[in-house]
Amino acid sequence: MNVSLSPELEEFITTRVASGRYRSASEVIGDGLRLLEEREAARMAALWELRQKIGVGLDQIARSEVHDGEATFREIHELSQRRSGGAA
Fold this sequence. Notes:
Oligomer: single chain
Structural class: mainly alpha
Number of helices: 3
Number of strands: 0
């Protein structure tokens, strides 16, 4: 497989190999692709978790287990004012 890289990326790879951490450009590319794979897996896991939470929320809505957000924040604000002696 042939890949075209920008001069900046070529220099980065050359510098990594010259540092002695990698034996070849292929190792640098392989390490980068492994990191990308890990990042994508983490992204997919986070997306799955978000979808699960949305599902829970939709189920709660279906069971009418919801609260009016504005009313809830109004109650919190009023409680805060009472606790602080009325200063807002």
